[in-house]
Amino acid sequence: MxxxxxxxxxxxxxxxGVTIGAxxxxxxxxxxxxxxxxxxxxxxxxxxxxxxxxxxxxxxGCGTGYLTRRMARAVGPEGSxxxxxxxxxxxxxxxxxxxxxxxAACGYREGVAEDLGLPDGSFDxxxxxxxxxxxxxxxRPAALKEMWRVLRPGGRLLVVEFRPPNSALGRHLVxxxxxxxMSHNRTDLLDGIVAGAGFEIRGTGDVRPWLTYVQGxxxxxxxxxxPMG
Length: 229
Description:
By secondary structure, the chain is of the alpha/beta class. It has one domain: 3-Layer(aba) Sandwich (Rossmann fold), CATH 3.40.50.150. It is built from nine helices and seven strands. Strands 3-2-1-4-5-7-6 form a seven-stranded mixed sheet, with helices on both faces. Strand 4 (about 125-130), helix 6 and strand 5 form a beta-alpha-beta unit. Helix 3 crosses helix 4 (about 65-75). Mean pLDDT is about 85; it is low at about 1-5.
């Protein structure tokens, strides 16, 4: 059995997506896979999000809150950061890990990416990291359209996904440990999904060793979100 399957949580009534049920194992796996560069990589992602001091930030599929806490440092005590995840166990872990003095206080709530249950236009920046591959492909556009909905016009989006490795060693690690969903992750489709949800693409790139990202923005015009399908 792969490590990825061991980390899976119980099915959630509101989503067919995969949840994480073993937060400590997930953190150990993250530390191992990033070979000591995880903090550097996610600090870089927080900068790439474009979040400013005082921003209201949403982290969709926040998991253990690793990126959430780095977003809090970026926006400072004047801002606010909300992490949303369907797994109660990882949310409990994230709350325990949250520390005063790292920037804005992080708030965490249970929810699913494809139906966030948050007000329209209520955030300046939305980020999501290593979440989309947990959703069935047909639900990923719905999740992106929810992110569009909760962003204010002109708000920023950062989508981060796992980039399957090219090396033989990297492929062996992923196929043997982290599972099929990550080893066959179609990151080449990311910008198309983001654009299809109504975002303007502002940039794409990679963050070593295993990440790729798309930067987007909700246009300033008040056109409605594109219909499903």
